[in-house]
Amino acid sequence: MNFLQCIVFVTLIFACVNFPVICGKMISIQEDVLRALLVMNRSCDTGASSSHYAFYAYLSHDLPEPGGNHHFVYDTIMTNIGHAYSSITGTFTVPRNGIYSFTWSTRVACSKAHTTQLVVNTRVLGSTYIWCGYNTVTGHVVTHASQGDAVYVRTHSSPGQGAIKSSDAGRSAFSGFLIA
Hints:
With 180 residues, the protein is of the alpha+beta class.
């Protein structure tokens, strides 16, 4: 539904709700128009695509000593609206140009610090640093991404020592969604 159709739709509803006496004899014509508008599109946007994309996935198992530049594969999907996240590759493939929000959390049990990075294609857009013990760190990035871009999380090139954990006490997880 384009913007003009949306205005007509809202105007007709407003007229029928606020002026029932005026609408009394014209209701069948207005009902037909309303049905036609609803069939065209059930949302009142301004021409933007009504497609939604969002995902949330987490690690189902620990990753002992993942090494440098290790690409995380969050294999347990809880949400995958639009099916743009792959639990096989651990990559979100951007379905259309737009502004996206990405968040990742890493739970560690280690003896040395760990750094993780959010990568779009080959460009690092965000990173987290965590001193070890039993800790969790979260990173967040809002960015413009283009259709076909590959977004994923990896360890830094110089690896930490110890395990990346996945437990109910603090899951290692990755999520994202289209903002606009």
